[in-house]
Amino acid sequence: EVNNLPAPQSAVIQSTCSTVNIDTGTTVNNAVVPSNIFVSITPRASSDRILVLASVEGGGTCSGGQACVLTLALWRNNLTQILVNTEASGISNGLTGESMFTTPSILKMDNPNTIATLTYTIYFGVDSGAGTGSVHLNNNGTNSSTICAFEFAK
After folding, report:
1. Whole-angstrom Cα distance, residue 46 to residue 112?
2. pTM summary value
3. CA-based nearest residue to 17, from 152, 150, 154, 151
């Protein structure tokens, strides 16, 4: 106890962040692909937890009179999908040729149970229904996205 406050049950023991301002490329119509937005961290104990936070800049177009939705997913080591956000920040529009732009966020506490290096990568896609949609991240390099990983001792 310090100043009559209880000791924290868990504490951040390391953190790392990565900011990317290079365009990720484009994906169209329901394809979910890896981006160049990733962060790596090596846990000090297998019982520790990893909190992943990301703020992602995304934009694109939607046509065909259908609503489009940006899909974000968080993958660990490009092998395990640990989070899907199918309506990232609720972007959608049904106006033909309309551009969309948003800044969705990701927040996930992971329990990887390892001391091996972990790489968390943002995957992205667009659900365009019966219309046509395309989406890219970082607005052709004029915006940036940030992803951070925090290790919490258990």
Report:
1. 7
2. 0.81
3. 150
